[in-house]
Amino acid sequence: MTVRSDSSGSNDKAHKDGLDDQHNWDRYRSYLHLIAQANLGTVLRKKVDASDVVQQTLMQAYEKQDQFRGSDEASRVAWLKKILRNRIIDFARHWHGGLRDARREVGFEKIVDASIARVDDWLEASQTSPSQHVAKKEQLLQLPNALDQLDVELRQVVVMHHLQGMKLREIAEQVGCNETTVGRRLMRGLKQLNQLMQE
Question: Which of 2, 105, 127, 164 could make a disulfide contact with 99, Cβ separation 3.0–4.6 Å?
């Protein structure tokens, strides 16, 4: 389902933002799905589907679009990431009994924030010129599609290392191979991903 804003909504707000009333919210779906998958963790992923979290995020954004105060694409992406972050934390509270401990909840919030920041940092690290920084917002939207084109074993280690922040040793234990193999898969995956992002 494509979530679109209603044309009978506030035209003044849309024009102020420089965005059309018929803005296609679905263009962010893959990017938000990637972040959700990286943040749901093994236990939560068994109870909550990342697609559901993303759908709820987009529906909430659509319903509350009059509260959006940004004026450009970057602001919109930041706003969507904040909504997604809060949805993930809400699901964690629900399925982990309210997280029962304020320290545990703050710890989980920090993990989610760090994972979301990792996506941006990863793209920032690959930017070397001002024109590449301008292209970052487009790359944010291209990244999930490029990752989907990788072989499963390559995608798995790239996501675990760069989005979930796992060390090679931890990945090796989880996927059942040695660190050297994980390192090789990571290098191949990043090389292929870089080529896909250049296309």
Answer: 105
Domain stops at, among 131, 157, 176: 131
Q: What's the mean pLDDT in 77-81?
A: 88
Q: Which amino acid is at 42?
A: T
Q: For residue 125, what pLDDT is reported?
A: 63
pLDDT at 97: 61
H or E element that contains 24: none
Examine the domain organization and report whether 116 and 192 are in the same domain: no
Q: Is residue 80 part of a domain?
A: yes
- Token pair in block for residue 70: 């940004």
Centroid of chain to Cα 133: 18
Domain count, the chain: 2
Beta bridge partners of 4: 24
> Do the Cβ atoms of 53 and 36 come closer than 8 Å?
yes
Mean pLDDT highest for which of 74-83, 98-107, 154-163, 184-193?
184-193
Among 104, 106, 98, 147, which residue's Cα sits nearest to residue 123? Answer: 147
108 φ/ψ angles, rounded to the nearest 5 degrees: -65, -40
Quote the DSSP letter at residue 4.
B
Query: Whole-prediction pTM value?
Result: 0.66
Backbone angles phi, psi at 193, to 5 degrees: -65, -45
**Which residues are within 8 A (CB) of 68 and not within 5 positions of it... i.e. 6 or more apart?**
13, 17, 61, 75, 76, 79
Q: Which domain holds residue 85?
A: 13-131
